[in-house]
Write a structure and sequence with these properties.
- This protein has 121 residues and is α+β, with helices and mostly antiparallel strands.
- It contains 2 helices and 7 strands.
Length: 121
C-alpha cells in the first residue's frame, strides 16, 4: 500500500509518499527532508478512508545523499515519530493501522508476524 503524505514547510506545500507505516511512526520518502527534531502537522491519505487523517509528528532521523543516518533504509527521506494528543487518539490510530495491516496481509499472516495482542493483556 502506498499512502500519500501532505505537509507544509515554510510557505511550500509538499506531497510525498510512504509505504512504511507502523503504530509508532512512518518513513516519508522525500528529497527535501525536514531537520531532525522538527515537529509538524501532516495529513495521511489512506485509500480505505474518505478523509485524510491529520497527525502530528516529529522528525527523528534523516537520510540524505552523503549522510545516511539509517543505512539499512535505501531511500532518501525522514523517519517520523507520531505524537498523539491523548491516549484515546493514540488507541484509535493504532487500531486503524492494525486494521490496514490485517486487510493488506490477511489475518493468518498478520497474526504470524504480529501475534495476538490480546493474548498477553
Amino acid at each position: 500500500i502506498e499512502l500519500r503524505v501532505e505537509y507544509k514547510k515554510m510557505n511550500t506545500f509538499f506531497s510525498d509518499y510512504t509505504k512504511n507505516i507502523s503504530k509508532g511512526g512512518t518513513f516519508i520518502k522525500t528529497d527535501k527532508p525536514l531537520k531532525v527534531g522538527t515537529e509538524f502537522l501532516f495529513q495521511l491519505s489512506i485509500p480505505a478512508l474518505q478523509q485524510a487523517v491529520a497527525l502530528r509528528g516529529q522528525v527523528v532521523w534523516v537520510n540524505q545523499e552523503g549522510n545516511l543516518q539509517r543505512p539499512e533504509v535505501p531511500d532518501r527521506g525522514m523517519g517520523i515519530k507520531f505524537i498523539y494528543e491523548d491516549p484515546n487518539t493514540r488507541k484509535q490510530f493504532e487500531d486503524m493501522v492494525e486494521k490496514m495491516m490485517k486487510d493488506s496481509l490477511g489475518d493468518l499472516v498478520f497474526f504470524k508476524l504480529i501475534g495476538n495482542r490480546t493474548a498477553g493483556e
